[in-house]
User: Fold this.
Amino acid sequence: MNAAPPPPAIEVRDLRRVFRVRQGLFAPPREVVAVDGVSFRVPAGGVLGVVGESGCGKSTLARLILGLLEPTAGEVLVEGRRLATMDRRARARLIQPVFQDPFASLNPRRRVRDIVAMPLVAQGDVPREEIARRVAEMLERVGLSREQGERFPAQLSGGQRQRVAIARALVLRPRVVVCDEPTSALDVSVQAQILNLLAELRRDLGLTYLFISHNLAVVEHVATEVAVMYLGRIVERAEAEALFAAPRHPYTRALLASVLTPEPGLGVPDVGLGDALPDPANIPPGCRFHPRCPLAFARCPVEAPRPVPTATGIVECHLEDAAAAARPAAA
Amino acid sequence: MSALLEVAGLHVRFGEVAAVRGASLTVARGETHCLVGESGCGKSVTALAVMGLLARGARREAERLAFAGEDLRGLSDRAMSRLRGDRMAMIFQEPMTSLNPSYTVGSQMTEVLRRHRPGTTRARALDRAVELLGRVGITAPAMRLGQYPHQLSGGLRQRVMIAMALMCEPELLIADEPTTALDVTVQAQILRLLAGLQRDLGLAILLITHDLGIVARVAHRVSVMYAGEVVESAPTAALFAAPRHPYTRGLLACVPVPGKVRRDQPLGSIPGVVPRIPPGFAGCAFRDRCAHARPECAAAVPRRAAGPEHEFRCTLAPDWATRAEAALA
Ligand SMILES: Nc1ncnc2c1ncn2[C@@H]1O[C@H](COP(=O)(O)OP(=O)(O)OP(=O)(O)O)[C@@H](O)[C@H]1O
Ligand SMILES: Nc1ncnc2c1ncn2[C@@H]1O[C@H](COP(=O)(O)OP(=O)(O)OP(=O)(O)O)[C@@H](O)[C@H]1O
Ligand code: SF4
Ligand code: SF4
Ligand SMILES: [Mg+2]
Ligand SMILES: [Mg+2]
Assistant:
């Protein structure tokens, strides 16, 4: 008899989060739909890269998955267990964050070794000698010396601080790590050090990552699967190689066209998007991308496209409906 | 090509920090010269030194600092402020340094023009502002004139800054990280815009960035800065085809390039971080991170020619990399 297949490391179902933003004393509050009906699964050991423009809901999605924000609707499961019903300590053993600005997320008045020890201390039942042993082991693992463990965050460089944040995230040996722009504040030489470290840790510890970045070249390098967000929805999801080789959604194509690789002579491409920048408080009717889409047609402003399954994911665009209808039915 | 901006042997010091240490570069009319390097290597300070906008307490020295053949070193503050915003303009790294939050876009744009061209009527200045806002791709420009900077998105603000910098038809535009805070799609739009303006107006542009992708796509010429020095300078094609300085080579290896670096392979990386350099420091500032460092790297480092208009600062011979590769093959 076969054992049941392992549950996905991360599963989100119809996740939605609305913020009410007050605009002034008397104005009625506006609703900002930051995440709007998002569903996906990440298999254990996978890396789901999430890309999209500023304000499209990437960090909100990260915080929902970490349990730092309550969903307005929908649910999050980590290793098959519902996040909403789990207690804090159990959750901390399962899933941990690494954020963009390590300086803001590290307590400036604590020594590095105490910062890394915090999650263990918060568990409440780990003996002191074991805490000391595991912190020392973790610091070494992320490439920090014993001497650096005695310092305060302000005495470290940006890259070293990000190593501290990674050590703190991994000290409980979680299964899933949510990285929200983990290298965006770093220089490229340091970014490369951190990306290499994250790749090595994933391989050695069997971790699953949700990896958010606005840098598509970075995502291409680390992700096994990629989700493209636009105004709160995933408009395309596919295996990384397929997505970069053959992007299907018009927005994905524009994003890829905007990547300026260090290849001289190619010039700056015309990405073909209009000036109508997206506003999450004012989501256009029909396809939310239609005011900027170079391929929009009559149906786009009136009818919202549904996700159409593809070989390795989904695409949400009316052109895909038409393409699917034109294809002979699959056997 | 005649050089519009000439900088040679520029030094800037803030107390015990030597921020720029003998940097040299030239920008010709109609040319985009990119100054690239990691955080803290002295790019902004170099630009501010040219514009005469260094913070109080900074010490600036240069062997040559000239704009259109005129020596900037001896200019009075008044003469310098007459040049600034008129014949040479700058877009700052932080948009809110050049945009005043309490004035509308329209009043700030017209003020620049009327300060430098006293006879200009308000109506003519407004016409010019509308024309330029349209030119930088802003729809409904007349409506934008009445708005305040905080009412604009990052991308619009950046366009307003570019339009404002162009009000007096400058000959030189210094743009310090003009697209760093923007989304990639907006970044591409703004860089195309700058390239188009340069073609149409014959502008000389000194573009500061830490992004080698931008450099490859927009520069005619590149200077790589490290710890206050220009360590390599070359025409763009030559720099990317045959980088000579170990730092330039290291930087290029760090950049993930879709389709080039295999995902299961680690990226190239440079160990350590950019050091702080005290005044009086001797030798190559890269030596504690360089895989090729040798004892002579602690002494004065020569400037070597690697090809036409291609120079680098290193103790290694110009053909070291090709010889090293041949030895491996
Ligand atoms: N706590 C909050 N209250 C009100 N609105 C919020 C809140 N958090 C996020 N938002 C709004 O939700 C939208 C999505 O924000 P989010 O931070 O998730 O975007 P993002 O994709 O991470 O952007 P960036 O790339 O700039 O980090 C934005 O319009 C944002 O202003
Ligand atoms: N007003 C100042 N007082 C003292 N030190 C300064 C001042 N301005 C800059 N510096 C120092 O000069 C050095 C160069 O700074 P600069 O701003 O030119 O770097 P940069 O190359 O523009 O970096 P970034 O990419 O982060 O903008 C840094 O070490 C910085 O700390
Ligand atoms: S549905 Fe229409 S507007 Fe939306 S992406 Fe597809 S073609 Fe463009
Ligand atoms: S001078 Fe020496 S240390 Fe500096 S880059 Fe050249 S080989 Fe490396
Ligand atoms: Mg975010
Ligand atoms: Mg700067």
Q: What stands out?
A: The domain at 10-326 of chain A is CATH 3.40.50.300 (Rossmann fold). Chain A touches chain B at residues 53-54, 157, 159, 187-193, 195-196, 199-200, 214, 216-218, 220-222, 240, 244, 254-255, 257-271, 273, 275, 277 (CB under 8 Å).
